[in-house]
Amino acid sequence: MKRWIKDPHTKLIYTLICGLGICLFCFGNQIFHIISSAGLGYTLIKTNKSSNMPWIVLGANMFYLSSLHLQRQFFDELGSYSLDITGPLMVLTQKVTSLAFSLQDAIDQKKSDDYKGTEMQKKYAVLEAPSFLEYWSFVFQFQSMLAGPLVLFKDFREFIHTDEFPSPLHAVVKKMGVSVFFAVVFIKVTPVYSIDKLKEFEFLWDTTFLYRMFYVTIATMMERAKYYHAWILADAVCNASGLGYDKQSQTWDLVTNVDALGFELGLNLKESLDSWNKGTMKWLRHVVYERVNPSIRTVATYAMSAIWHGFYPGYYITFLSGSVFTSVARQVRKTIRPLFVNDRGLKLVYDFFTWLTTRFVVAYVTFSFIILDFTPSIVLYLRLFCCFHVAAFGAMFALPKLSKHLKNRGTQPQPAARVPEAQKQAQKDTTERVKDNAQDVAEVTKPIKKENEQPPAARKNKGEDDSYYGPKAATKELISHEFPEIKSYLSNSKPTNDVWTTWTMNNAAMNGTPVQLKTG
């Protein structure tokens, strides 16, 4: 798009018209909800000048979204799934609320010279409020209208006003290929491991625990294929239009919503979650995690995510369990991991074990998100003996005691830092060498009293010094041989027959800085 349309005003109109057309084609008169929610947010942003404006916008838009979630859940004749306006409205809520917080961040920066916002708040602060056309073009941005990803307003504005970027052809072809692969997996393989089987009586009561755990893990993995397909395809569409180039990393991953490989190979729960639904994770971090009390930020973030998704019981089971497992995983990593990192073999074993455990935990936590209903989810947890919940709560009580025990014994492990330690040892060796050199220099230049030496008063007429150090040339030869690092200084001095040399090492030399020499 950007290669043929250069004028920013024309780009805004083109983006708005395309987005309106897609919404009308897919949702018909339901587009009214998009206009209503976006209009509500725009009015509040323009009229409310208090510092609480972003929270008011967040509350109002979440209330509107929640009302449609409840309508879909209790009054939708098509059941638990249908193509309705709630999907685009979820993306819209992210856009409007993130814009409100970015505008307030800019106001706070202008008011205070000692602004203490986070790096993300400073990066995405919007210094100039959007115009009417700019706002509605942002709302109906066609590239991410249906399935995301989230594009923050500052990135959208840069997209409109930037013309120069490398060709996205390679990135688009690659992402299209990956998207097609996951589409095939979802169509051909997912039915073999149907998620509906998790509700069947025979599966719950006539199979072994290991089979149930294995099946849940594979079924949830196959279910993720449809999300990979949709999000990677949306990413390719964004790149094809010129949106998504990251100047800092010089890649087309600025608005990437998922890293399938990163999620499936994550060594812990946090690594996996950081690779999943990145746009939503960025939004939650921007509007909740970095703005609430640290003691409740994890629970508050998961709660906001659950409400944003809807009100099916499965969502809340997943997110409440997720908050517990995230906290426990962080505690395990802090206490247990340092025991293994100093040995390469043990670390490989630890990494494999944590990767495998993470696969089971992800499946265990997320199957209720897919099932949605309360009773089938609880029954399946009971048939899995709530094994990971028991382990998590056990770890909550055991790990602090273990950490205290290791600390009292003086064996509290610390993460290895081989490079810094090596640098520290090298610096220590250099300092010791300089100290030794200083002592040797002092020994070499120690005053040598001549036999039958006359008192100082008797030598003053001879133009001699108060001390005898030997001829400068001889001293120079000896020092140059023993200490090459000061040879360059000696080579520039001018020897004379009637001048004697005093070599002194100052305090800076003892700290590893270059030796300073004085001639007298």
From TrEMBL:
UniProt region (Disordered), positions on chain: 408-470
Compartments where found: Membrane
Keyword Membrane among record annotations: yes
Biased composition (Basic and acidic residues): 426-438
Transmembrane segments: 12-32, 314-332, 352-372, 378-399
Signal peptide boundaries: none
UniProt-listed InterPro entries: LPLAT_7/PORCN-like, MBOAT_fam
Topological type in the membrane: Multi-pass membrane protein
ATP-binding keyword on record: no
Keywords, sorted A to Z: Acyltransferase, Membrane, Transferase, Transmembrane, Transmembrane helix
Record Pfam families: MBOAT
Protein name: Membrane-bound O-acyltransferase domain-containing protein 2
Protein source organism: Orchesella dallaii
